[in-house]
Amino acid sequence: MAKQVTPEEVRNRIENGEKVEIIDVRESAEVMSGKIPGAIHIPLGTLALRKDELDKDKNYIMVCQSGNRSKAACGILEALGYKVEDMVGGMNNWKGNIQ
């Protein structure tokens, strides 16, 4: 099971200059309302098809609107051998900048 991280932990990592790899698995219409700066948008439904865009040596933080799809995304990527963390609460709990 993927490690869970809070939106505050993710924001602190970004603010501390840590290089974080964030994947936003929401649908395009949802992302238009704003996403975490630097996040890569890969809708959940296309995640397995686009796995080759990801690097197995990196750790990815999965984000959705409320936390359900990011948990599913973690399961998919973990099964494929990727290192992932699940941002609990999703964008509903994000208090940082958006772009």
What structural category characterises the helix and strand content?
Answer: alpha/beta
**Can you count the helices?**
3
| Rg, Cα atoms, Å | 12 Å
- What share of residues is helical? 25-40%
Count the domains. 1
Task: Give the structure's gist in a few sentences.
The chain is an alpha/beta fold and 99 residues long.
Structural account:
By secondary structure, the protein is α/β, with parallel strands linked by helices. It has a single domain, classed as Oxidized Rhodanese, domain 1 (3-Layer(aba) Sandwich). It is 25% helix and 19% strand. The protein has a five-stranded parallel beta sheet with strand order 1-5-4-2-3. Strand 2 (21-24), helix 2 (28-31) and strand 3 (40-41) form a beta-alpha-beta unit. The longest helix is centred in the last third of the chain and has 12 residues, at 68-79. It is globular, with a radius of gyration of 12 Å. The model has no long low-confidence stretch (mean pLDDT 97).
Which helices and strands, and how do they pair?
Layout: E1 3-5, H1 7-15, E2 21-24, H2 28-31, E3 40-41, E4 59-63, H3 68-79, E5 83-87
Parallel strand pairs: 1-5, 2-3, 2-4, 4-5
Features:
99 residues; alpha/beta; Oxidized Rhodanese, domain 1; five-stranded parallel β-sheet; 3 helices; globular
